[in-house]
UniProtKB/TrEMBL annotation:
Coiled coil regions, renumbered to chain: none
Highest taxon listed in the record's lineage: Bacteria
Gene3D superfamilies tied to this protein: Jelly Rolls, Winged helix-like DNA-binding domain superfamily/Winged helix DNA-binding domain
PANTHER family: CRP FAMILY TRANSCRIPTIONAL REGULATORY PROTEIN, REGULATORY PROTEIN YEIL
Protein name per its UniProtKB record: Crp/Fnr family transcriptional regulator
Source organism (scientific name): Vreelandella alkaliphila
SUPFAM superfamilies referenced in this protein's UniProt entry, alphabetically: cAMP-binding domain-like, Winged helix' DNA-binding domain
Keywords in alphabetical order: DNA-binding, Transcription, Transcription regulation
Origin organism lineage: Bacteria, Pseudomonadati, Pseudomonadota, Gammaproteobacteria, Oceanospirillales
InterPro entries hit by this protein: cNMP-bd_dom, cNMP-bd_dom_sf, Env_Response_Regulators, HTH_CRP, RmlC-like_jellyroll, WH-like_DNA-bd_sf, WH_DNA-bd_sf
Domain HTH crp-type: 148-222
Pfam families listed in its UniProt record: cNMP_binding (PF00027), HTH_Crp_2 (PF13545)
Amino acid sequence: MDQDKSCIISHFSHYCSLTEAEKALLIELEESPTDIKAGSLLWEIDAPANEFCTLRSGWAYSYRHLENGDRQILEVFLPGDIIGLREFAFSRRLENVRMITDGVVCHFPHKRMLELFRQSLTLTSVMFAIGSRHQALLTERLVNLARRSARQKMAHFLHEMYLRLRQTNHDISEQFRLPLSQEQLADILGLSPVHVSRTFSALSEDGLVFRDRHNVTIPNLKALATEGEFDDCYLTDNVRPLLISA
């Protein structure tokens, strides 16, 4: 695979500069690609957890079903993300994972990660940074669900998605594709589908966000950040100073 087209290399490069040898190690994590259709289940909760997968292309999400039948979406995965990191220390899956769009997934066993750790201090450091970032994303999601208004929830989430997409696509403009249904957005934000629609309409009336089906336009990113009380510190930190001091 062409290194310049590798989403996982773009993802890791956000944290620090990579050597050609380190890029080659990451490319190995994108071997044996499997085409996956939208809606397909990657794994179910309580299934054996013995491998990770990289998302070469497409979007996916993790979720849990509640006893009353409701669904809570926990994480949204974008191209370049590694899925299953939280289960590295567990023998069973902690959540369900399903594709949002058609995509390409590359599976690799847990032991392959240990080999990567042995071969590269830099990649090991980045992997810990990514794990820390996953934790920070979940913390922000918790605050968003529990303490922000519907407008703030939506503004914060859209701003976050824009910055995450820009990490692996530096050419992204003020318009980007958000392939999430009204129901999926509701299950991410703890709202009803009707409330999601009304919130989009309210943000549009104020000129903050415009949506045309799955295309979202953010004319003023700073204004949207203010609306959502957004602080990007949990998305912008890197491990460069740590590696330099080492």
